[in-house]
Structures are given as structure tokens and as C-alpha cells.
Design a protein that fits this description.
The protein is mainly beta. It is about 0% helix and about 65% strand. The chain is built from no helices and 17 strands. It has a 17-stranded antiparallel sheet, with no helix packed on it. The protein starts with a strand and ends with a strand.
């Protein structure tokens, strides 16, 4: 059971205040015996068991808003015994503060949103004698250069530090760029979008003294044409992914072409062709060709029959030599796989 108090106040001068207080009564196991020294009962709703806990949570916020900007700060506290319905995996036993800001620039064509803060965990010291610390920082910049061209850029930092002889430290950095260009003609519209993501993760442990580094890069190019007088909708994409770590150097390259054709109001054909290369250094590439086709047919009102057929051809590179198989295979192994899926859907 959760009892909460919530209030939001907005003033004419742009000030915003947020106060939220909560108290939870949580029983992990109703089959556990009643507690001899119980948490204060909340009858007739709660009887305290040996697995019952009661704790509090606090969320405070204050912000000042202008015509093209906003700045504020937040404070959150969750006790070690605080649990709430609907958020089963919420992390408790922590306290955090954040400084947030948002503003427009360059004749309102640029929007910048950012925050920075710190999180403290293990406040109850149940997981050890020391607090854990996490740095949280992110910034996102959206710029509309012209009516056709825009760019979104973002940076996220997440750090975690647990002191002590058995301590642990990790730092994660991620940088993303997403340019989008659109153009139109009298017969069609076009969307060309690119996304590049660079991610770096470093992990350090004191006992045993080890450092792990994992760097990934992802690039995605997407082109979607839309024909005004046609019922055919194609799309094309090209993706490159690279993962570099001390024990692995993996590169993926995938090209995809898809199409859907709405023949009438009740029947739609769809298909996709995908070709992939995956290379783990120092071996040659594995090759994969995937062909998918199917249809959606509205047999009756709100009743649809869906059918999908997939053919998959996979050729191994030198990563899997044929002489490692039983029986021994001369050359590079390959396999063919076909899958047929069908289903009935009724909406009500």
C-alpha cells in the first residue's frame, strides 16, 4: 500500500514548484509469520509480517520558466524499504539531485536541453559500509537549419563508483548525431536520415585489479520515398556496426530493402530483402541472405489473416572451419533455413 501527497504550483511570474511525498507499506511474503516487533499496522489494510517494511520517498522540484528558456533543480529520495505498485524494478535506497535547463537560440531554430547531477546509493549501508556514487549528465541539441534539413545531436555520461578494497568503477560515454533531410516534388516526397552513435565504456575493479574497455560505433542510413499516387511504399537502409574490445573485434554490415503494397482496402502484400556481412577479426566474413514475404488479409471486419514466409541462406567464413565439424566438411560450411508463420487476429 502506498499513501502519497502531491502538489504542483505554477505562478504568473514563471515559477514552478513540485512536491511529492510518499509512504509505502510493503509485504514481500504474506506466508511469513506475523512480526513480534511489527511495523506499525495500517489496519484493516495491512497486518505486519516478518517480511513487512515501511519507508518514505520524497520528490522536490523548483524551476523558473521564461519565454525561451527554463532552468530548475530536482531532489529525489527513496528509502531502502520503499516500494510502489507499477514499478517493480525501481531502485530504492538512493538519493539524487539534478540541475536541468532548456533554452532556444539562433532565432529559435536551435533547442538545447541538458542536465547534470549526482546519485548516492546504499544509504542504509545494507550492501556494505560505504555509499555508492553515480554521475549523471546529458545534453541534447536540435537545430532546424532549413525547412528541409535538421540535425539532432546528443551526449550522455553515466558514471558509477563504489569505494573500498572490493570497489568498482565504471564510466559510460555516448555521442549521437542524427541529420535528416526531406524534399518534395509534385509526385512524391523523400526522407533521407542518417544516425551515427559512438559509445565508450570503461570498467575498473580493484580486487582483482582489472580494467575492461568496450567501444562501439554504429552508422545507419535510411531512405524512404513516398509516392502520392501509388499504393506501393518502399524503404531502403544501410547499417554499419563495429565493436572493439580486448578479446573481440567485430564488424557488421547490413543492407535492407523493403516494400509494402496495399492492393485494396482489405489486402496488403509485404516483402523484405536483407544481406549481411559479419566479420570477427582475423577471420573472413560470414554471409547471410534473408528473404521475407507475406500478406495481411482482412477476411471479415476486424478479423485478419496474416501469413509470412522467410528463407535464410547463411555461409560461414573461416570463423567456423569445415574440419571442426563431425563429419568433416570440405570448404566453408553453410545452411539453408525456411520458416512459415501464420496467424489469425481479431480486434474488438
Amino acid at each position: 500500500m502506498v499513501i502519497s501527497f502531491l502538489t504542483d504550483v505554477n505562478t504568473d511570474k514563471g515559477w514552478k514548484y513540485h512536491i511529492e511525498l510518499g509512504q509505502s507499506f510493503f509485504t514481500r511474503n504474506l506466508n511469513a509469520p506475523l512480526s513480534i516487533t511489527p511495523v506499525e499496522d495500517f489496519k484493516p489494510f495491512i497486518n505486519s509480517h516478518t517480511s513487512t517494511s515501511k519507508d518514505n520517498a520524497v520528490m522536490l522540484g523548483i524551476a523558473k520558466k521564461g519565454s525561451d528558456w527554463e532552468i530548475g533543480t530536482k531532489f529525489n529520495y527513496y528509502g531502502a524499504g520503499y516500494y510502489t505498485a507499477g514499478f517493480q524494478f525501481m531502485t530504492n535506497d538512493k538519493m539524487e539531485y539534478l540541475l536541468n535547463t532548456r533554452f532556444n537560440a539562433w532565432k529559435k531554430k536551435m533547442n538545447i536541453v541538458g542536465s547534470i547531477g549526482e546519485r548516492y546509493g546504499n544509504l542504509s549501508r545494507t550492501a556494505g559500509p560505504d555509499l555508492t556514487k553515480q554521475i549523471i549528465a546529458n545534453i541534447n541539441v536540435f537545430t532546424q537549419f532549413t525547412d528541409q534539413f535538421s540535425m539532432n545531436a546528443g551526449y550522455n555520461n553515466f558514471g558509477f563508483n563504489s569505494p573500498g578494497l572490493s570497489g568498482y568503477k565504471s564510466v559510460s560515454n555516448e555521442l549521437t548525431f542524427n541529420p535528416v533531410y526531406t524534399w518534395n516534388s509534385t509526385t512524391m516526397s523523400n526522407l533521407l536520415s542518417g544516425t551515427y552513435t559512438w559509445s565508450k565504456y570503461d570498467e575498473t575493479t580493484i580486487l582483482p585489479p582489472t580494467t575492461t574497455k568496450n567501444n562501439t560505433q554504429t552508422a545507419l542510413l535510411l531512405y524512404v520515398p513516398t509516392f502520392f499516387s501509388s499504393k506501393v511504399s518502399p524503404d531502403f537502409s544501410l547499417m554499419w556496426f563495429k565493436n572493439s574490445a580486448p578479446t573481440i573485434n567485430l564488424t557488421l554490415l547490413t543492407s535492407t530493402a523493403g516494400m509494402s503494397w496495399k492492393m485494396n482496402s482489405k489486402f496488403k502484400l509485404k516483402g523484405q530483402l536483407q544481406y549481411s556481412l559479419s566479420t570477427t577479426s582475423p577471420f573472413t566474413a560470414n554471409k547471410n541472405l534473408l528473404v521475407t514475404s507475406g500478406f495481411d488479409w482482412e477476411v471479415f471486419k476486424r478479423f485478419t489473416w496474416q501469413l509470412t514466409a522467410t528463407a535464410n541462406v547463411y555461409h560461414y567464413g573461416t570463423e567456423l572451419p569445415g574440419n571442426s565439424l563431425t563429419p568433416i566438411y570440405l570448404g566453408n560450411p553453410a545452411y539453408f533455413e525456411s520458416i512459415l508463420r501464420t496467424g489469425l487476429q481479431y480486434k474488438f
